[in-house]
Amino acid sequence: MKGVDNVNLIKELTLDINGLGIIMYSDFATSHITEGEDYLSQSYQTPQQVANHIMEGSIVGFCTSSPGRYILNVRRGYPTESDLNLAEFKLRLGIEIRDGRMCIRDLYDLMSWRENCPINQCIDLENGYYHITLYGDVPSSGLLGDRQIIYVYLNKLNSMPALRCDGVPMFSQ
To answer: What pTM was computed for the model?
Structure first.
């Protein structure tokens, strides 16, 4: 059964999003954004702007293709190859953590920035670089974002993982 690796479970969180994507970051990566700023249209709008953030591991976003309620199961390490092979959606990203935590938020939070991330959307992590593996399936209802489960695996590395990114990473069909 996919996602049953509870030994490496860090946290499960429910994220309701109004936008079409999710962002992950460490506080240092957003420290230059001023309170109330529309960073989305100014600096995270074009495929090249998003790709630049992805490649440096700063504000790491991915498109869900739908608003809704997402259940993120965050775990350490890598998923099994069989779980990845069975998943309808899969994506690999990287992130740099400098502030001892990773925040997970709605992409649309970048439209009117608020520095404080809700504590239930934060994951305590050791500083360093992490390879992120995301995978999941369409919910049984057939509607993206309908309590859709996304497995988020974080594997600590010595340096930023080599990534390929030509634009906005898609976590959908």
So the answer is: 0.93
